[in-house]
Amino acid sequence: MKKYLLSGILFFLYVAAAGQSRVEKIIRASMDQQVTCWNSGQIECFMDTYWNSDSLLFIGKTGVTHGWRNTLNNYKRGYPDTAAMGKLNFTILSIRKLSSKYYNVIGKWQLLRSMGNLQGHFTLLFKKIRHRWVIVQDHSS
Question: Domain locations in the chain?
Fold first, then answer.
């Protein structure tokens, strides 16, 4: 019985490690890039991980925003300088494969700022478009 249990656990760990697939690593790297860009005050660089399309969907505390440019403009209005931007940190709670073209990411975000810290949660939908994984939907609160 113990032998089968151990074999099952080892198989699960192997599958879980394999489950942190190349795509999951790409998504984590993409989000690390966002943090690096944000923390250096580069909102346009931060937005590079989003789908540059009018079909991008962003849902935040002020409602629904359609489009990459509109989302960028909202970020610039809300965070006009590096003091307002603060230092960003993400904690990824889960990355789940929905299909060969879609992944769901759930996590927490935190901004450390001298004017007061902010924090919340997010749900991201990543899609593979033209051989690149990009955020096509972001619900941050």
Answer: 20-140
User: Within a 10 A sphere around the Cβ of 35, how many other Cβ atoms?
Assistant: 15
* C-beta separation of 1 from 51 below 8 A: no
Residue pLDDT, tens place only, 36-66: 999 999 999 999 999 999 999 999 999 999 9
**CATH number of this structure's domain 20-140, picked from the four choices 1.10.1510.10, 3.30.710.10, 3.10.450.50, 2.40.50.840:** 3.10.450.50
Q: Phi and psi dihedrals of 56, rounded to 5?
A: -60, 140
How buried is 138 (Cβ within 10 angstroms: 0-12 exposed, 13-18 middle, 19+ buried)?
Answer: buried
Query: ∠ CA 125-140-30 to the nearest 5 degrees?
Result: 50
Cα 78 off chain centre by: 19
Residue 40 DSSP SS3? coil
**What dihedral do alpha carbons 36, 42, 46, 47 form, nearest 10°?**
-170
Six-digit token string for 37: 């860009």
- Of 83, 52, 78, 79, the closest CA to residue 67 belongs to 52
pTM given for the model: 0.84
